[in-house]
Amino acid sequence: MERKPTSKVVSEKVGELTETVQDSQAWNSIFRPGSVFRKGYSDSPRNRSYVIMNSVLYHLHPVKVKRHAVKVSYTLCLGGLSFFLFILLTVTGIFLMFFYRPTAAAAWSDISSLQTSVAFGLLVRNMHRWGAHLMVLSVFLHMARVFYHGAYKSPREFNWVIGVILLTLTLLLSFTGYLLPWDQLALWAVTVGTNMMGFTPVFGSQVRFVLLGGAEIGTDTLLRWYVLHVLFVPFVTVIFMAIHFWRVRKDGGISGPL
Amino acid sequence: MTEIPEHLRKRAEAAREKAASKASDAGDAAEAGADAAAAGSSEASSEAASKIPAHLLDRSKSAKARKAAGGGDSDDSSGGGGVAVATAPAAAAVATATAPVMTGPGGNTQRLLTVVKAGSIQDVKAKPQDKVHVWPHLIVVEFVAALAVTAFTLLFSVFVNAPLLELANFNQTPNPSKAPWYFLGLQELLTMFHPMVAGVTIPGIGIFALILAPYTDRNPSNKPEDRKFAVSLFTVHMMFWAVLTMIGSFFRGPGFNFVFPWVDGLFFEL
Which of B145, B161, B177 is the last residue of a domain? Predict the structure, then answer.
């Protein structure tokens, strides 16, 4: 009796198994039509539409966009990259939260031991820091790009307003995070910053008191800025980002071409 | 801006082509029919030229015949009933004979009253736009951009460590004390203005002016050549701000005094 080569047998078995799995109810309930993992995916206009419509992430996008909207030279990807950096910062930030206690006694030594005795601790902290600076930069450049394209003009006036709010929120996110390492750089940078805000007319000292959680920077300030940094400001930012992205579509996609 | 879906547009184009080819066919048929009409069979030509189904033509013909017969009936009713019965077939025969006369030049049984162009009734604002599928064209660009930024951040983080100075100490003020880099423009302003002006008024007005930009800029064009004033105003402010930030970052040393970084070194931490 002639025997088939083992490799052929194996590939046949794998093919059969794939067939069975992809035909199963479980598989088809997980991957909606248009998923590249679904059986029978082929490159057709119908499937291209399904990919966008049936993915929770991609359906932020419409199924189709103006041809010029995919040109990198127009947007420089700055808005999308700001959003992506926000996600990157969320992921790295969650990692850092596992090793950090927001008290004056523990904060600095937590960061210090994170860098020396936690696997990838130093790398993730670096990424969080540099990513944050990069995000401030990319949000700022995004604003400049939008201005130079006149993209804030009707019907996109309000989305520009949302965008300016998002810019200030980004600065707030970065600034609240600045204090958390509780080193000399953090303490004095924040001292300079909050002293400036203390000069708000009429209720300057109240503003300063609310920001610091006391008359001077201390462990209460650290807790306050920690909650602002990891929960409150990101929460508000996500809401404004949702409105921002939604309005991009409602206002007819991105502006242009010039 | 809505767009006409591509498949609908294609369908409409196909239908239009089909109609055009049919019309030319019908024209040929009409010519052939004209020859036939000369031979006496005008019905065939009218049927071929018009797209009116045969059974409708028959129905209208018989209706006309009946009407003609009825007309004869009423005319003759004053004379006598018996004659009417006799003339009815004759009238019908006449009607049948005159039916082709009542048709139009092309043998059509309907008349063209007027041509109304679509644009005069419906103002269709949507123009078909050149669009591409987000998958794969846009997703690929986004994916590559995200990957590039991740790679850049990762590599940069491998080689450059984030600063962690010594533990915060209230009794030891570093000299100089600097704010984060994006506030160094403001700190630079502190050297020129009262803290309330530098720290609150100017940034407040700046943010407010930015928010109001779309409402103060009444120029509807987004072409750079049409908005030289807006572009130059924005650029001047951005440059002014960038220069302030850079002076604050690199050219301020102990006591926040002006220094040259290549002489006294860099007093700047990210």
Answer: B161
Which pLDDT score, from 0 to 100, does residue A226 have? Answer: 96
What's the whole-model pTM score? 0.75
Report the candidate in B59, B42, B20, B64 with the shortest Cα–Cα distance to residue B108.
B42
Q: Are B188 and B150 within one domain?
A: no
Contact A195 B195 (CB under 8 A): yes
Residues B53 and B100 in one domain: yes
pLDDT given at position B199: 84
Which is nearest to A241 in space by CA: A52, A83, A88, A77? Answer: A83
Q: Are residues B13 and B101 in the same domain?
A: yes
CA distance linking residue B35 with residue B27, whole number of Å? 13
Nearest Cα of chain B lies from the Cα of A27 at a distance, in angstroms, of 22
In the block, tokens 């990762």 appear at B154
Q: State the distance between the two ends of chain B, measured CA to CA, in whole angstroms.
A: 45
- Per-residue confidence (pLDDT) for residue B3, from 0 to 100: 63
A141 touches chain B (CB under 8 A): no
- Cβ-Cβ pairs closer than 8 A, A with B, add up to 213
The number of distinct structural domains making up chain B is 3
In a domain, B116, yes or no: no
Distance CA A209, CA A230 (A): 21
pLDDT of residue B125: 73
- Can you tell me which residue has the tokens 């294609």? B10
- A74-250: CATH topology is Cytochrome Bc1 Complex; Chain C (1.20.810)
Q: Are B254 and B267 in contact (CB under 8 A)?
A: yes
pLDDT tens figures, B176-194:
888 899 999 999 998 899 8
Q: Is the dihedral of CA A230, A233, A236, A238 positive or negative?
A: negative
* Domain layout of chain A by residue ranges: 74-250
Residue B140 domain-assigned (yes or no) = yes
Do residues A142 and A162 touch, judged by C-beta distance below 8 A? no
Question: For the residues of A1-34, what is the DSSP string, one character each?
Answer: -PPPPHHHHHHHHHHHHHHHHHHSHHHHHHS-TT
- Residues B192 and B151 both lie in one domain: no
**Residues sharing a CB contact under 8 Å with residue B193, sequence separation 6 or more, in sequence order:** B202
> For testing the chain B interface, which of A199, A216, A245, A258 should be mutated: the one with the most B CBs within 10 Å?
A199
Instruction: Give me the mean pLDDT over the B141-155 stretch.
Output: 96
**Residues B178 and B195 grouped into a single domain:** yes
Closest Cα in chain A, distance from residue B155 (Å): 9
Give yes or no for a contact between A84 and B149, defined as CB atoms under 8 angstroms apart. Answer: yes
Q: How far apart are CA A22 and CA A29, in angstroms?
A: 10
- Tens of pLDDT, residue by residue over B232-254, are 999 999 999 999 999 999 999 99
Closest by alpha carbon to A223, among A233, A213, A232, A215? A213
Same domain? For B189 and B237 the reply is: yes
N- to C-terminal Cα distance for chain A?
74
Q: Could you tell me the pLDDT band of residue A96, with boundaries at 50, 70 and 90?
A: very high
